Amino acid sequence: MEKPEGLSRRHLLALSGGACASAALPAFSQSKLDSDPPFGLTGRFVQGGYAVGKGTPGADIVVDGTSRGPVGPSGWFYTGFDRDAGPTCHITLKTDKDQQSAVVSVLPVTYDIQRVEGLPQDTVTPQDPALLERIKREAALKAEAFASRIDSDAYHRGFDWPLNKFVVSGHFGNQRVLNGTPASPHMGFDMAAPTGTPIHAPQDGLVVLAEPDLFYEGGLILIDHGQGLISMYLHQSELLAKKGQWVRQGQPIGRVGAKGRATGPHLCWRLKWSDRHMDPSLMVVNRTA
User: Fold this and answer.
1) Which domain does 191 fall in, by range?
2) How many whole angstroms separate alpha carbon 67 and alpha carbon 93?
3) Which of 105, 140, 173 is the last residue of a domain?
4) Same-domain pairing of 154 and 227
């Protein structure tokens, strides 16, 4: 069992209460860190990772200078570190009376280059006007779903694996070369399994998109777990959940397939927090699979 780590001295740069700016935050001693970590932060403090903490309900969450919405009624809040996150992340909680800030270090990750051959060429470099129009329509559907912000804190309990048995066939963040053409980094965690293998919701959430046959993603489901943390399940052969449905951890939501841009049956599992892409496997509490 490998659980999210608490904040250690290598991650914490500074913490302050009151109204002072983060650039002027004083450093704490080791004893202070051990007894009073900022916001009780836990998580995985690496590129593609995350932090979960507790603060004043309703406080504005400001991450790297951008407001990310309010702390939930229970006090939990989430912060994601992008695939290309810089070495530090500034987290501030603001209320009408005061603010508290922390600056944590985000450790770098070395990404491999992954070469994928045998894809239909129109999924790599689409040219047909009708196809480009379809891609545009589907992008609008996904953008609407990604704008979801439900009031839930299910994320703080961590995730389960969405498949009971699988082989890792692609790691998050790898630089992709598709049919010999350099492409954007791979923002998913690929899990190879036979067609029809049940896919389970890794944590409670609201299904905000359920489309059976998108051009790139094939069968696609998006689940909002709260505060804009949305998980994605690509290339499904069959959907078992519908848009607007609340799903519970462990509930079947679909089946593995090879629809869309895929060379074989697998689940491409993705995770996004607003405009930041994270590695969903880092959210798994039990990582022995």
Assistant:
1) 113-283
2) 10
3) 105
4) yes
Question: Would you say residue 52 lies in a domain?
Answer: yes
Among 76, 19, 70, CA closest to 43? 76
Q: What is the pTM of this model?
A: 0.84
Q: Which of 105, 132, 159 is the last residue of a domain?
A: 105
In a domain, 243, yes or no: yes
Say which DSSP state 2 is in. -
> Which tokens sit at 133?
């129009």
**Of the candidates 165, 181, 158, the residue with the CA atom closest to the CA atom of residue 280:** 158
Q: What is the pLDDT along the chain (289 residues), one digit of tens a residue?
A: 355 665 444 444 433 333 222 222 222 222 233 445 578 899 999 999 999 999 999 999 999 999 999 999 999 999 999 999 999 999 999 999 989 999 999 999 988 877 766 666 656 666 788 888 999 999 999 999 999 999 999 999 999 999 999 999 989 998 767 766 666 788 999 999 999 999 999 999 999 999 999 999 999 999 999 999 999 999 999 999 999 999 999 999 999 999 988 889 999 999 999 999 999 999 998 755 4
**List of residues 6+ apart from 97 with CB closer than 8 A:** none
DSSP string of 4-49?
Answer: PEEP-TTTEEEEEEET--GGGPPPPPHHHHHH--GGG-EEE-BTT-
> What are the backbone dihedrals phi and psi of residue 116, each rounded to the nearest 5 degrees, phi first?
-120, 125
Return d(Cα 248, Cα 200) in angstroms, integer. 9
- CATH number at 145 reads 2.70.70.10
In a domain, 288, yes or no: no
